[in-house]
Amino acid sequence: MLSKRIIACLDVRNGQVVKGINFEGLRSAGDPAELARRYNTEGIDELVILDVTATIEARRALADTIARVARELFIPLAVGGGIRSEADAAAAVEAGADKVSLNTAALADPGLVTAVATRYGSQAVLVAIDAKREADGPHRFGVYARSGSTNAGRDAVEWAREAEDRGAGEILLTSIDRDGTRAGFDCELTAAVSAAVSIPVIASGGAGGLDDFVDVFTAGRADAALAASIFHYAETSVRALKQHLRGHGIPVRV
Amino acid sequence: MIALIDYHAGNLTSVRKALATVGAEVVVPTKPEELDAVAGVIVPGVGHFGATRALAGAWTDAILARVGEGRPLLGICLGMQWLYEGSEEAPEVPGLGLLGGQCYRLSGDVKVPHVGWNSLAIQQRTSIVEGVPQDSQVYFTHSYVGPVNGDTIAVTDHGETFAAVVQRGHVAGVQFHPEKSGEIGLRILRNFLELAA
C-alpha cells in the first residue's frame, strides 16, 4: 500500500537554514546538508529546500546548497522559492533537485508549469498554492501570491485543477491561516483540493502535534504532509511521528 | 564502464550521482557506436512512452547487440516499460520486446499518478534483489505499468498488482527509482553492477 509521506522543509537563506534550530549533536546547526543527513537517518521521506531570499547572490548559494544536499541523499529533493523562469527551474534541476516548486511565477504565467513539465516531466513539477479562507470574498479559499502578501483573485480548488491540467505532478498546499500557528493543518482546505485533483496533495501549515498529522491524512485526505519547525526544534522526531501514525493504521515507510 | 542512455526523457543527474556512489564508472554515449565496449547498459527515463521513439533504429540495434553478447541491461521506470512489447500510452511506438506484454495505465479507486513510497512483494529470489528484504519500500512516480508475468520478480499494489521488478537472465527492470529509494535503491544498483562485473 502506498505510504503517506512525511516531508521536512528547510528554509534556507544564503546557504544556511534560517528557522530556529535546536538539534543536539550538530556541529553547525544551520548547515542544510547536516540537517538533511539527520532527517534522512530518522526516516524522512522527502526534503524541500525553500530559498527565502531569492536574490541573484543567493541563487548561486542555493545551487551550491542543492548540490551539497543532493550529493549524499538518495531520497526525493524539491526546491522552491523564487523560481521565476524555466532557466531558474533548469538551474535547480541541474544542481540536483528532483522537483521544482512553482508559485507566484506560475500564477503570473501558467504556461511555465507546462514548459517545465514538458522539459523534465510532470513528476518534476510541484505547484505551490498558498491559500487563505475568505469569509467575505468570492472564493471559499483564496489564492495568494508573493509569499502570501498579494491576493491573486483565484480560488484554490479551481487553480489546483488548472495546475493539474497544465502538467503539475503534485500540489503543495499551504494554509496561510494556519502557517506558524501550530493549531493543526487546515483539513477542510486540504480535503477540498485533494478531492478535486487526481495528483498528490502535500498539506502544509499548522503542524503542531502528532495528532495533527493523523487528522490531515484522514479527514484532510492528504497524500503527504510537510513541516519545518516542529522537526527543527526536535520536539517531534520523524521516527516517533511515524510510529504514532502507524499506531493509527496510517501506512508509512519505517 | 556502464552506459547511461540519454534520450531526453528526464534529467539524469540523480541516476549518475547514485551510480557514482556505488562505484560505477559511467559514460553517457552520444552515438550508438560508443556502446561497443561497455560492460552494461542502463536505460532510465520518466515521462511519456512516446519519448522512447528516440531509441528506435541504431540505438535499439546497439543495445540488443550488447544484450546478445550477454552484457546486462537495466531499465528504470520508463526504461523498464520499454523492455516490454509496447505501451497503451503510445501504441504506435514499439518497445524492445524482451519481455512479453503491453504496458497499461493504472486504474482502480486510487490516485494516478502513483507517487511515493510503496512496498515490494518479492516473488522470486534473483540476483537483482539480492539482499533486499521482503516488503522493502521504494520510491515510485508513474502512471503506466508493466503486466505481471513469468519474468516478474517483485510486485507492488496500487489499485491493482503490477510488476515492480523484472528480470530475465541479465536483463532487468525496476518500475521505481533506485536513485531515489535510499539504501535499498543503492543496493539494487550495486546488484546490477555485479551482473556487469
Could you please describe the fold and organization of this structure?
The complex is a heterodimer of chains A (254) and B (197). Chain A is α/β, with parallel strands linked by helices. Chain A has a single domain (5-247), classed as TIM Barrel (Alpha-Beta Barrel). Chain A contains ten helices and eleven strands. Chain A has an eight-stranded parallel beta barrel, surrounded by seven helices. In chain A, β7 and β8 (150-155) form a beta hairpin. In chain A, α1 (32-42) runs parallel beside α2. The longest helix of chain A has 17 residues, at 56-72. The relative contact order of chain A is 0.15. The model of chain A has no long low-confidence stretch (mean pLDDT 91). The model of chain B has no long low-confidence stretch (mean pLDDT 96). Chain B is built from four helices and 13 strands. Chain B is globular. Chain B has one domain: Class I glutamine amidotransferase (GATase) domain (Rossmann fold, 3-Layer(aba) Sandwich). Chain B has an eight-stranded mixed beta sheet with strand order 2-1-3-4-13-12-11-8. A three-stranded mixed beta sheet of chain B has the order 5-6-10, with no helix packed on it. Chain B is an alpha/beta fold and 197 residues long. The A-B interface holds A 1-5, 40, 45, 70-71, 74-76, 93-94, 96, 98, 120-124, 169-170, 198-200, 223-224, 253 and B 9-11, 13-14, 17-18, 21, 46-47, 110-119, 137, 139, 141-142, 157-158, 179-183, 185-186.
